[in-house]
Amino acid sequence: MEPVKIGLLGLGTVGGGTATVLMRNAEEIARRAGRGIRVDMAAARELERAQELGLTDVRLTENAEEVVNDPDCEVIVELIGGYEPARTLVLQAIENGKHVVTANKALIALHGDEIFKAAQAKGVVVAFEAAVAGGIPIIKALREGLSANEIQWVAGIINGTGNFILTEMRDKGRDFDDVLKEAQELGYAEADPTFDVEGIDAAHKLTILASLAFGIPLQFDACYTEGISKITREDVEYAEELGYRIKHLGVTRRTKKGIELRVHPTLIPENRLIANVDGVMNAVLVMADAVGPTLYYGAGAGAEPTASAVVADIIDVVRTLTSDPENRVPHLAFQPDSLSDIPVLPIEDIKTSYYLRMLAADKAGVLAEVTSILGGAGISIEAVIQKDPKNEKQAEIIMLTHKVREKQMNTAIDKIKALDATFGNITRIRMESLGR
After folding, report:
1. Catalytic-labelled residue, pool 205, 230, 256, 415
2. Does the annotation count 417 as an active-site position?
3. What is the DSSP string of 395-413?
4. Fold of the domain spanning 349-431
């Protein structure tokens, strides 16, 4: 049987890794797929990259449209990233009746509904395992392995850059700006690190996970997103003292009122497995009704870890080339006419516990004023620490609260900030126990 011919868009880090894995493991891949798979045509900005990768018998072009429109390429692998021209190229490939594999989380999070609708109409597959958590097969787990379950919640460390920064801050007592600079030097963070440190990258991925977990349309704009750039070395140290670790977490949960969809710094009890995921590693914890908690851990980025997921998707596509389109696993795990219209909740309606840190006058009665405001808002306190005064007149107060709705906490914080005895902003970090 003739090998399946692949059209590859992009020969950068992931594209190069994908080509390498396809060539190195060609025999094993053919055994798994049932037939050979080879890169027949590739588009890249720098064509000499193909020679570096050993792609000597591959047709090359600088024009990605030529690959998408080539009649010999049965599967298009989009690894150029970003919104455009990726969206246009993917839709054109689908229109041409070609299957698509992509690692582009931004594309899927914002335009996935449109892309999957087009693919459904054409009877082709769009596979996107590598779009979330690199080489960790979390999408396959949600779409297939856990399909007998009702998913209750998903929580994940899904951006390695942010996790590296918080790990260094905790282990070495370093400041955010200092670690960010090193992350850029090591290639973990881009020159413009906004997508990583402000949570946008994680929000793209969480949007996809929520859709797979709960059978809802992709709704990136509804995801509450908060970064880690305001986390201080002191916050990390105080969390440790209280038995917690700060992680940049993506959380999506099914509730009676709607779906929680949020990315933000989070205090997690230090004895939780996910709290001990360090460095650039990723982990996703899924709670389901039948199986209970399952944890998926591994490299969330990098050439070959991501290529592992891309090639696995290519193998799946090749396996389904002769199958009936109606009997394939749906793109978002649920049949297209069965997606739910359950709403995504605004952050103000979310209930969590909180870590609060504030600077206050070091005098009698101030703590009583603060606790009175919290009590008046229906907020009960779990723990209080008062640190040594910053100077003779100011002290730092750290509090942990029990669960309360965010809008109640917002009201209380506004009242505390208005006190004559408090100074500057109040640091607020949400907390999750990640138990049942």
Report:
1. 205
2. no
3. EEEEEEE--EEHHHHHHHH
4. Alpha-Beta Plaits (3.30.70)
